[in-house]
Specification:
single chain; 174 residues; 6 helices; 5 strands
Length: 174
């Protein structure tokens, strides 16, 4: 399987997948995989440390570089202050293609520790379908209800799918 000189395709490959490319052995495959991961982390670090969230597009611009090429699902939370500036971000879980498990208690503990007054959830669908699943709807409701008890508002939940996304807030689904 050749990556067709496509960096996004290469970014989605596992180390085993990279090793199957012509002329690439174990050591080179590990170096290439590490370089791709460094690139992802650099994109994340390069983003402003505490941007202000005014719209779903702002959230998308933070997470798209990190998630658009991932072969697995990742679930992230942004913790926001009263001015909707990002106080902190945290990866809650990472899973296979079928989905991730999120623990609402971990999210709320971090929200309280950071004195957040708002939350934004974001995860990706490697499948290419950006419609929310039943479990996406359930976890959104659980986090919204848990937050409401502590005056921490869930502002949005984004599902990133390549260069496209679905926003619960924009679609009136919050």
């Amino acid at each position: 399987a050749m990556s067709g000189n496509s960096l996004p395709e290469l970014g989605r490959m596992s180390i085993d997948g990279i090793k199957r490319l012509k002329g690439i052995g174990d050591a080179k495959a590990v170096i290439i995989a590490a370089a791709l991961e460094l690139g992802r982390r650099r994109k994340l670090a390069g983003a402003s440390d505490n941007p202000q969230i005014r719209s779903s597009a702002d959230v998308f611009n933070i997470f798209c570089p990190l998630m658009e090429d991932l072969p697995h699902e990742e679930f992230w939370i942004l913790f926001l202050n009263r001015a909707n500036k990002v106080i902190s971000r945290m990866k809650i879980s990472q899973g296979g293609v079928s989905g991730t498990v999120t623990d609402v208690r971990i999210i709320m503990k971090k929200a309280v520790e950071t004195l957040a007054s708002g939350l934004v959830i974001c995860h990706n669908h490697p499948s290419g379908n950006n419609s929310p699943s039943d479990s996406d709807v359930r976890i959104t409701r659980k986090i919204k209800e848990a937050g409401a008890l502590m005056d921490i508002q869930l502002l949005d939940h984004l599902i990133i799918c390549g260069k496209d996304y679905y926003s619960f807030a924009d679609n009136g689904a919050l």
